[in-house]
Amino acid sequence: SCRPAWWKEVVVYQIYPRSFMDTNGDGIGDLRGIIARLDYLQTLGVDVLWLNPIYDSPNDDMGYDIRDYRKIMAEFGTLDDFDELLRQVHARGMKLVMDLVANHTSDEHPWFVASRSSRDNPYRDWYIWRDGKDGREPNNWLSHFSVPAWTWDERTGQYYLHLFSRRQPDLNWENPKVREAIFDIMRFWLDKGIDGFRMDVINAIAKAEGLPDAPAQPGQRYAWGGQYFLNQPKVHDYLREMHEKILSKYDIMTVGETGGVTTEHALLFAGEDRHELNMVFQFEHMSIDATDGDKWRPRPWRLTELKAVMSRWQDELYGKAWNSLYWSNHDQPRVVSRFGNDGPYRVESAKMLATVLHMMQGTPYIYQGEEIGMTNCAFDRIEDYRDVEIHNLWQERVLKGGEDPAAILRVIHLKGRDNARTPMQWDDSPNAGFTTGTPWIRVNPNYPEINVRQAMADPNSIFHHYRRLIQLRKQHPVVVYGKYELLLPEDEEIWAYTRTFMDERWLVVANFFDGSPLFELPPAVPCQGGELLLANYPVEPHGEGVADENPPHRFRLRPYECRVYRLT
Ligand code: TEU
Ligand code: CA
C-alpha cells in the first residue's frame, strides 16, 4: 500500500505492569492500574503501549515463564479487565502491543507437565530432551542466568534444555505442532484487536543441528553457546512461516528482541523486503560497559564507542530496515544512572539523553519512569531483591563460589535488573502512590523528590521535555525520515549529528559529561544560521550575547547541555 507504515511514526511506552500501578492494595500493579493512568500517558503523548507479559505465570521470571497463554495473571486481573483496557486504549487513539514469549514456557505449562511425564507421551517432542554424555549434560552450554542450560529430569532419565532459568524449558520449534500452537495463541490475541507483538528472544528459537559444545575457556566446564542458538538460518524459515500465516493478515507492528545481533543479522530479520519482522532491539550499545559481553564484569564506557555503535546502526539500516531506539527497559539499569548523572545533573542529563535518542532515526521506546528520570536503586540486603537472575548469581558466585558478598552486591547495584523494576513513582505519598499496601519490591527512597506529580507541575521537568520531543516528531517529518549523519566522531565529550530530509537540516549537539567543551560546526556542513528548537538550559544569556560565540557555528556547552537547531 502507499500508506506510510504507522509504526515508523510512533513513540512506544513500555509498561512493566507489576510495578506500574496497584488499585486493590495487594502491592502488585494491575490492569485496572494501567487503565487508571491512561490519561497520564495520553498527556505525555505516546502512541503505543507495550506491556511486559501479563499471562498466567508462576513468576519464576516475572511473567516470562508462561503457564497459560490465554489467561491473564490472577494478580493482574481478568480477561474482562483486559478487554476494557484495550477498549480504553483504542478510545484514546492509542495502540497496544503485547509480549510474545515463544522460545520457552513455564515448567508448569500443561505442555511441559505432559512432556516430562514419560518418554513416549505425545508432548515429549514439544521440548528439547537429550540423553546425558558420560554422566554429564548433553553439551556444555551455560544458560543466561549463571546456571548450566540443561537440567536432569529424574523420572524419565534425560536432560531438558533451558536457555534461561530451570523453570523455563525451551520449546522445540522444529516440531510443526509447536509452531501451530504458538500461531494459534497469536491469533487469539490479534483477533481481540491488539496491535502487535514484542517477541521475546525470538532469534533464539532455532538451535543448531546436533547442539554442539561451545568453545570453553581453559579450566571452565561451561561456556556461552550463543553461536549455536542465536541467529541460526532456520529462525528465518520460522519467521517467514509466521509472517505468511499470521502477521501478514493484520495491520500490526512487530519488534523482535534479538540479543547478539549485528546490523547484518538485523537486515535479515527486519529488511523491508524480507517479510519477517518490522524491527529488532539490538544490544550492542548495552554492552559497551561490560567486559566481553559479561554484564557482571563492568568496565568504564567511552562516548566514542557509544557514538560509533549507534551511528553504525543508523547508517547501515538506512533505507533498508527500520531502527528501534531505546536506552532502557525492564532488563537494564536506569539510563540516567548509567550514561547520565543521577547526582547534581540528573535533570539536565536525563533531558540530554532523551534528546539524543529521540532525534535519531527509528521508533523510540520509553521505559516507564524514564520520562521522570527515575534512577537506579541499591538495596543493602540480597533478600530485598526479587529477580531470578540476581538470586542465581548470588547462589553461584557467593554461596557456592565463595566470592566476596560486598563485591557481588556492588555489581548488582550497577547492573541488576531490579534497578528498573522498583515501583513507578507517582507522588510523594507513602509508597510513591503506587500502592496502599506493601509493594512486592521496595520503592526507591528518592520518590519524595522524583515523582510524576512533581514532574507534571514543573514546566522545566524531564517529563515536559519528553512531551516536547514527542511533539517535534509529530510535527516534523525530518525527525522520522531524515538521514542521520554523525559529526566529530573522535570527540570524547560531545555527540553531534545532523538529520536531513528534503531541504530541511537539523543539528543536534549534546555534551555527555560535566565539563564545558567548545562545539565547532565542521565547515563541510552548509549553514548560515540556525533556529533553536529545543534545549535543556536557557540559551539567551549564554549563546548570542557571549563574545567569541556564534551559535550554531561555535559555542561552549554547559554540563550535559544539549541543543537542537534547524539550520538555515
Ligand atoms: O531477555 C532476553 C535476554 O537476552 C536477556 O539476556 C537479557 O538481555 C538479560 O535479562 C539481561 O541480563 C528476555 C526478557 O526481556 C527477560 O526479562 C527475560 O528474563 C528473558 O527474555 C527470558 O524470557
Ligand atoms: Ca494489585
TrEMBL record:
Main location: cytoplasm
Claim: Zinc is one of the keywords in the record: no
Domain Glycosyl hydrolase family 13 catalytic: start-end pairs: 14-421
Location relative to the cell: Cytoplasm
Keywords tagged on the record: Cytoplasm, Glycosidase, Hydrolase
Reactions catalysed, as given in the entry: Hydrolysis of (1->6)-alpha-D-glucosidic linkages in some oligosaccharides produced from starch and glycogen by alpha-amylase, and in isomaltose
Enzyme Commission no: 3.2.1.10
Molecular function per GO: alpha-amylase activity; oligo-1,6-glucosidase activity
Pfam families linked to this entry: Alpha-amylase, Malt_amylase_C
GO biological process, one term: oligosaccharide catabolic process
Entry superkingdom: Bacteria
GO cellular component: cytoplasm
InterPro entries named in the record: GH, GH13_cat_dom, Glyco_hydro_b, Malt_amylase-like_C, O16G_dom_2
Gene3D superfamilies: Glycosidases, Golgi alpha-mannosidase II, Oligo-1,6-glucosidase, Domain 2
Matching PANTHER family: ALPHA-AMYLASE FAMILY MEMBER (PTHR10357), OLIGO-1,6-GLUCOSIDASE 1 (PTHR10357:SF184)
Family from the record: Belongs to the glycosyl hydrolase 13 family.
Protein name (record): oligo-1,6-glucosidase
Organism per entry: Alicyclobacillus macrosporangiidus
